[in-house]
Specification:
Elements lengths: L11 H18 L7 H6 L4 E7 L17 H6 L9 H6 L3 E6 L9 E7 L1
Antiparallel strand pairs: 1-3, 2-3
Length: 117
């Protein structure tokens, strides 16, 4: 199989291709563990949640101490500093719904995202 590198941000086609690769990979491991969105809808599932760690200071959320007083403004103003995948997930229809401060160490939050299906 030939591989090439690209900037996934360049087109919706790249985002879809990446999603297909992920789906194919996980389906090959265990199809029952990775239902399609259509199968999930038929089963009554209304959305998908995911967590994406920032352990490498890749977002602005890791540049500050998240507290109950600033967490919502920091999430609203999040910046991608080092190609963190949250932007990929946003292009796939997910929205940031929260963050767990220090989930992976001091100033290393877990970013929670949701997608309605």
């Amino acid at each position: 199989m030939a591989h090439s590198f690209c900037n996934i941000k360049e087109s919706a086609e790249f985002v879809k291709a990446a999603a297909n690769i992920l789906f194919s990979t996980f389906s090959a491991i265990n199809k029952d563990a990775w239902p399609t969105e259509e199968e999930a809808k038929k089963a009554g599932i209304i959305g998908i949640v995911l967590g994406t760690d920032d352990e490498t200071n890749s977002t602005s959320l890791s540049a500050c101490s998240l507290t109950g007083e600033n967490i919502f403004s920091e999430i609203s103003n999040i910046r991608n500093r080092k190609n963190h995948p949250y932007e990929f997930y946003k292009k796939c229809g997910y929205s940031i719904i929260g963050a767990i401060p220090n989930a992976n160490g001091i100033n290393k939050p877990d970013i929670w995202m949701w997608k309605n299906i």
